[in-house]
Amino acid sequence: MDFRQLRTFIEVAKLKSFSKAAQKLFLTQPTVSSQILNLEEELGCRLFDRVGKNISLTQAGQIFYNNAIEIINTYDNLKFEIDEYNKSIVGTLDITCSSVPRKHFLPKVISEFSLQNKDVKYRISELDSMKVIDNIIDGYYDFGIVGNKYDVANISFIPLMNDELVLISPVSYGICSPTLDLNEIINYNFIIREKGSGTREIIEKALSSTPYNFDSLNVIAYLEDNETIKKFVECGLGLGFISKYEIDNNLNQTYRMHKINNLPLERFFYLASHKIRTLSPLSNKFIDFLLEKSIFY
């Protein structure tokens, strides 16, 4: 057993595909299959269930996966310390986050981090907040940035940047007041983020403190991103809640922005990471940098 086999096994488990793992690792698929087979033979058990083109970890595979992550991260930490001693920090940083920090927080932070760490590359994926948490728990990512704080075992949440949700309405509706009462809008159609998003969770929680609840809204569409919500609103399909960071030059041209009296829609975006699992050294370095820079937001 060697580190190449462990890294191959981890990528197959993450991607649930031999061919995708081969592409990512710049190996042939037969090489990946051979490495996994050799591991299974050495361990004396199957690591993956294979049903047609679908693969999943066996119970033994899950145990091996959790420990393989620890071994690789411990090795990477050791190598990182030596590289840092030699002033050479390299590697690929995997970051998962929800849409607002991906667009409005990470670009500046990564730009500044890259000035000091020119050999680091980045893979950034956008998921809703609950999926980010699930992926951290499953070991697919060391950390992520989410739009809500959840009661989840072994996950820590550190505030990074503040935000506020605002209501937007199409100009064609003629709603001009910058502040509204909830009873003035409750009968309109709404376009809302999908279940699992931090935005959706904040709206549900805020409404629970009023005489209304989430089910009081006449939701005609559940969407996966703020940009599409804006497009739906601009076309006159209903009202929507989006982050204040998503307000753009179309304000007052195709849509208007409003605050709702007595509806608490302030929130933080949080750095989420595993409390127990050993993180990769590159992740630790970026997290330290991230926390330092978050004071500007």
The gist of it:
The chain is of the alpha/beta class and 297 residues long. It is built from ten helices and twelve strands.
Mean pLDDT: 90
CATH topology term of the domain at 162-267: D-Maltodextrin-Binding Protein, domain 2
**Count of distinct strands:** 12
Distance between the termini: 46 Å
Beta fraction of the residues? Answer: 25-35%
CATH architecture designation of the domain at 162-267 = 3-Layer(aba) Sandwich
Write down the secondary-structure element order.
HHHEEHEHHEHEEEEHEHEEEH
Coarse shape? elongated
CATH top-level class of the domain at 162-267: Alpha Beta
Largest sheet: 10 strands, mixed
- Determine the CATH superfamily of the domain at 162-267: Periplasmic binding protein-like II
Q: Output the radius of gyration.
A: 23 Å
Domain HTH lysR-type: 1-58
Protein name: LysR family transcriptional regulator
Organism: Soehngenia longivitae
InterPro entries: LysR-like_Sec_metab, LysR_HTH_N, LysR_subst-bd, WH-like_DNA-bd_sf, WH_DNA-bd_sf
